[in-house]
Write a structure and sequence with these properties.
Blueprint: E1 16-20, H1 24-35, E2 39-41, H2 44-49, E3 54-57, H3 62-74, E4 78-81, E5 94-98, E6 101-105, H4 112-123, H5 130-139, H6 141-147, H7 151-162, H8 176-185, E7 192-198, H9 208-216, E8 219-222, H10 228-231, E9 239-241, E10 252-258
Parallel strand pairs: 1-2, 1-3, 3-4, 7-10, 8-9, 8-10
Antiparallel strand pairs: 5-6
Helix pairs in contact: 5-8
Length: about 260
Amino acid sequence: MSLTSLPLFHRLAGQPVVVLGHGEAAEAKRRLVVRAGGKVIEDLAEGIDVGARLAFIAHEDAGACAADAIRARGAGLLVNVVDKPALCDFTTPSIIDRAPVIIAVGTGGASAGLAKALRLRLERLLPQGLGALAEALYAAREAMRARWPTGPERRRALDAALEEGGALDPLRGGDAAGVEAWLAGGGDGASGRFTIMLRSADPDDLTLREARLLGQADAVVAGPQVPAAVLARVRADAARIAPGGAEPECGIVVLIEGA
């Protein structure tokens, strides 16, 4: 199992972005750029001259789209051609804005309607206070470093606080006061060695506890029989260890067996 695209968040504040075309599709891209703080440039040559890195192309004529896509890409710009995934270097997701928390739902251009439907469903679940919680955690970075000196310690403590029912459960609308109370109360989070016995190759068959352990693990011990779809649930920066290999002495170590 692999990603067909890599989700990234591109900082556009004050940056030039080329948007070509007329009509509602082009206007939607202009609004998107302005919303992200970018400066809309409506001429490709000008955009190249001022160092634009992105280009949205929304001509009604397919030939004009293809021609401008070639010109922009040849000048080193990343290109998005509206409704033509085959001509795109990147696609634009459906966005949930809880600034500074931004949640993006994308389908790689397969179905904007599906991305929108998922975004609308998630909108109802996510409280407006998510942004305030993120800002409070940012402000508390030095206090967290003092309380938990190492990265793994901070991660485990924060994972425990942010999980369902935790002191900072984000779906319960945590805020700055909650972060202060959590820091005052402490709490180090889970640690130890855990075993997951797979019942099938389908990651949806993982229990909530198993999925949480994979998402929080510092290291995972797994043989070649473990499906890639299950390993995709593991944190990207968690250590992958073959059976019999040296395991870390502390943190969360998960042994995956069966399949």
